[in-house]
Amino acid sequence: MLNKNIKLIIAGLIVITAVWQFTEGNIGNGIFLILLTAIPIFLYYKNEFILLAFLKLRKQDMEGAKKWLDFIKKPESALVKKQQGYFNYLHGILISQTNINQAEKFFKKAIELGLSMDMDLAVAKLNLAGVAMSRRRKLEATTLLNEAKKLDKQGMLKDQIVMMKDQMKKI
Question: Which residues of 149-165 are buried (b: 16+ CB within 10 A; e: fewer)?
């Protein structure tokens, strides 16, 4: 994995090479190099290992997703803030299968760092509500469920939210 700053340096070098190609009269090469600059800039904002982990998670391959996330050694220095949020979000999803207490820490950190999509934020808050409910913190769970309901604009989590509210009534 390349450091986020190295990706920007590579993009800068490609742009310099493109300008040089333009001055030499090789317009086609310059245009191609300008288009090629999009790859390191895209990878600056979207980490390749996080993207691969999402693909594995989509196929329900938890071990594969964990393997890709393990390639990121120092997320604080290698990732931008939003990527760190998704790094913690993915770790929270993976760990919630086995250790819900540790997953809570990852979900809280993911929410603190920020997630780009409302749906991801809703899932994180729904998981935190489940943790709060299991620890008999009904007020916190209710607040988190209401926030998750507001963030779930497509209604994909509607059934889970209703189910959790029904379970809270039993507590």
Answer: bebbeeeebeebbeebb
